[in-house]
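[agent] plan:
  1. take the single chain provided in the ticket
  2. run structure prediction with default settings
  3. attach structure tokens to the ticket
  4. add a short note for the reviewer (M.T.)
[agent] executing step 1
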Amino acid sequence: MSEAVLLWVYASSALIAVVVIVATVRAPGLSSLRVGLLIYLTGTAWWATVDLLRVMIGSSSVQVIEAWTMPALALVVAGVRVSVHGATHPGRKISAPDAVGFAAHPVLTVIAASLPMLWSLVAVKNADGSVVYGPLFWANAAITYSIFTIATIEMFKGRHASSVFTSRTAPLIASIWSIPLVASVVTVVISSPAGIDLTAPSFALTSILIWRTVVPVEMRQAVRIARSQVLEELADAVIVLGNTGNILDANAAALRLVGALGTVAEFIDKPLRQTWPFIADAAAHAGEHDLTVSGREVVLDVTISPLAAANGAPSGRAVVLRDVTDAV
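[agent] step 2 finished; step 3 output follows
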């Protein structure tokens, strides 16, 4: 592979990581999961930049270049650990002991890379001028892959408590994570420290896949939580209907009003007229209605608000039913 192509590949990898960092920061809110993704992306950008310098400087500084890839790898794995922790412990902030545990490996690798006396243990120069990986490199690799494996196991173990790493998405995320792992193994097996590094481009690719898989799911979950908190606090009954009259949502007050048992999930997508026929006509016309609901004579004041999709097309209506029997 020519030098120009390598420069383009590594520069593109760093740019991709930076772009995804910006997208992650601009997304509303900043959960522990996305903090982990930012750490992951920082390590990816770092690694791609080091590889870029490797091509520009040449093999003369291979030891120092290889030493500074260790913190990049440590950051990537630390990002995975933080993301898994955030997704499998929703609502729980990162404690000081947790933060120390997450930061220990990256800090140690930065210290090691900062000491010139250790560079020869990362990449060993032979008498014939060739360069091979040293004991410090292999020790860091063993620690890294062990941490990676533990984080993956924690993801699968905690998937039942997570709205992001579910039984469906956890295998997908594990498959995505396997891409840079395979690239790393291939790089070490077929190349020397001065050779072509496939790991940074693969991390850049997976950063896009992970962002597309994880962040939208997390943001939708945050919206659902916010909706639930607001809707459930309302004293008035609220029923959200689609264009065809199917029930899209309802709060606890609505279930109490109609005498429904169970949760709203049992009524989603069912026609209102078939499910709660005694309020179907009232839900179609605003104003006061005398009704018999659950064997009780009530007067309901109905307010209807049209709903629209993002493109402006009608998507249904929100029906608010206020019991004004006592006032009447």
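[agent] step 4 note for reviewer: Residues 222-226 have pLDDT under 50 and may be disordered.
[agent] ticket updated
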